[in-house]
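ok so for the tutorial part 2 we go from a plain amino acid sequence to predicted structure tokens. step 1 is just haveing the sequence, like this:
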Amino acid sequence: MTIRTLLPNALRAVHAGLVVIAAIVLTACASDTGRPARSIVGQTDRSNVDQAFDILIRRQDRVYRVITPLLVKNTALCKSSARPLLGFTAKNRYSYSAELRAAAESRLKLGDALQVLQVLDGSGAMRAGIKRGDVLQSIEGQSVPQGDQAETEAAKLVLPLMRNATELEVALSRNGVPTVLKVLLTPACAFAVEIGNAPHVNTYNDGRRIMMTAGMLDVLSDAELAIVLAREVAHGSLRHARTMQMTSTLAGVIDALLTIRPDLSGFAGSAGIKPMDARLDQEADRIALYMLARAGFDPALAPRTLEKLSLAYPATVTNSYTAHHPWTAERASLMQATLTEIRQKQATRKSLLP
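step 2 — the prediction. this is what the tokens look like for a chain of 354 residues:
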């Protein structure tokens, strides 16, 4: 399963339509304490697919919870990727690969219609009263498509409606009762987030999608996860994948890790990924620290988190985070200087802008 939901490849870059950050799902029974979920990589028994699906849903919910404030509080720092969004996510059973479709039907009760599965905290959708389980009927009087092409067609439907709009009328069915709500659009840094079913401890960013591997999620607390996610949002906002001429390579890596049982044979080496240029990592560090502060996280944890990863998974470990983002004394020093700058601005109540 992926967290890509409502947009086809051609439209995901603009992240219009119904997406919050593409679709991270919350199930009624899924709660996550922030502790690592056990690995699902390598499970082959069909009877375990539902369990694997549930684990993946919990991971998605955890990432969604952590990244949401980073996306909605930092439009001033991600201007190149900021978009107005409806503030909820929706899926149907065809949002999932064939191997997961039955689990989506049984676990999430999804059919042919697009159904709301997550509402962005503090968004126009939440204020309007959109709730999980609502079945979409129409947007601005235009019927929301159903069936195996529903996401693609819904994205095409909503994109022109959002141009020059501040709110959209959403008609839905809640427990069989028709409801019409006016939803204010919510500005956010519009990045999709994926869960990669791989044991190595790393993240990937192709400029529009951020992927956290299961291995990375297993070793980070929520506070540490916020640090890594903030850096990826910063890299995406600064378009570093394009600068490094790695967009296609990283997109291929992300695609390869989306299935429940990905083929990891291509990861014996570097998977074609070059280490990030030191200057670009430093740029991302600086922006990420400001993003963390603006989103209510403690940016002072960042140097310790990155040092922790560098010690546990050094650059000599193939496909490790540090192999792609070398941790250096210079980076540590520059981060401390930025942290001092942020503290001074907070003390004098100045705008948290670099």
